[in-house]
Amino acid sequence: MTTDQSEVGYTFDDINSIAKDVLQKTQHRPTIGIICGSGLGGLADKVDQPDVVHYHEIKEFPVATVQGHEGKLVFGKLEGKTVVLMRGRFHYYEGYPMWKVAMPVRVMKAMGISTLIVTNAAGGLNPEFNTGDLMILRDHIDLPGLTGECVLIGRNDERFGPRFPATVGTYDDQLIKQAKAIAQELGYGPVLREGVYIMIGGPTFETVAESRLLRNWGADAVGMSTVPEAVVAKHCGLKVFGISLITDMCSLSYDAVNATTHEEVLKIGQKRAGDLQKLVSCLIGKIQD
Ligand SMILES: O=P(O)(O)O[C@@H]1C[C@H](O)[C@@H](CO)O1
Ligand SMILES: Nc1nc2[nH]cnc2c(=O)[nH]1
Asked: Which N-terminal residues, if any, form the signal peptide (predicted)?
């Protein structure tokens, strides 16, 4: 690991060495990676023949510090596919630099995945949304990136991806179509949404004025994760699918203020995680390795 600001982050060799070490702890060779959002780690319990690797067992891996994020990789079989789940992700507000927040994506790519599924808990900004809705990410707004904290800042190694990557089409059209069809089959039509996720740095939830601003910018939901992971995934050529569980509605008016808490986020997560997990499992079943 280097410390010079132009060379921050793990080198290509560092990433490959971490991936190699982790693969020695499991018999599985995953093709699909899944990052579980706050309170959404239960999908890991559905994995057959699980091999669990705790983050603290992996040299150079950050540790998860947020309630609802356990801090382990779970390898195994889901719907016949070999997967690796991150049960616990890293957030910028925990004090990790952006490149560290997203480094597990490069490790998973080095382990052999070709598709990344990212899930999160998010606040609803679109007034037509309701708490408990599931929102497929059509696109995102990288607010930290737009303000100088892009996850790809630093020297670029072309073996990871290009210096100036396109971010249009980050979320795979085919996966979006498949997920929508599955949601209809499962009877989730009334709670299924599609929209734009905006990432803020956190850990503060939004003021009313900030929620109005984010809504005016075209965002349908707001959260504190996902975007750095999706940007790094697109950069290194992974197919990406993103989905948010709307755990609370952001206040757009001073007359109806809802002061969101993390406990509320986890509670709705617990209540609604089953449907999100079902949708993600069925989608995994349809992904071509
Ligand atoms: O990891 P995610 O994005 O699901 O977590 C959300 C955003 C904050 O970390 C936390 C707020 O309750 O939930
Ligand atoms: N920023 C933000 N993140 C969330 N994660 C879950 N709910 C919210 C929310 O309302 N705002």
From this structure: none
Global pTM value? 0.95
Q: How many domains does the chain have?
A: 1
Ligand with smallest separation from the Cα of 131 = 2
Tell me the three-class secondary structure of the chain, residue by residue: CECCHHHCECCHHHHHHHHHHHHCCCCCCCCEEEECCCCCHHHHHHCEEEEEEEHHHCCCCCCCCCCCCCCEEEEEEECCEEEEEEECCCCHHHCCCHHHHHHHHHHHHHHCCCEEEEEEEEEECCCCCCCCCEEEEEEEEEHHHHCCCCCCCCCCCCCCCCCCCCCCCCECHHHHHHHHHHHHHCCCHHHEEEEEEEECCCCCCCCHHHHHHHHHCCCCEEECCCHHHHHHHHHCCCEEEEEEEEEEECCCCCCCCCCCCHHHHHHHHHHHHHHHHHHHHHHHHHCCC
Establish whether residue 267 lines the binding site of ligand 1, counting it when its CB lies within 6 angstroms of any ligand atom.
Answer: no
Tens digit of each residue's pLDDT (9 = 90 or more) over 26-47: 999 999 999 999 878 889 999 9
State if residue 41 touches ligand 1 by the CB under 6 angstroms criterion. no
Which CATH number characterizes residue 81's domain?
A: 3.40.50.1580
Ligand 2 pocket test: pick from 211, 250, 268 the residue with the most ligand atoms within 8 Å of its Cβ.
250
pLDDT tens figures, 77-97: 999 999 999 999 999 999 999
Q: Is the CB of 224 under 6 A from ligand 2?
A: yes
Residue of minimum CA distance from atom 7 in ligand 1: 224
| Residue 65 Cα to ligand 2 middle (Å) | 17
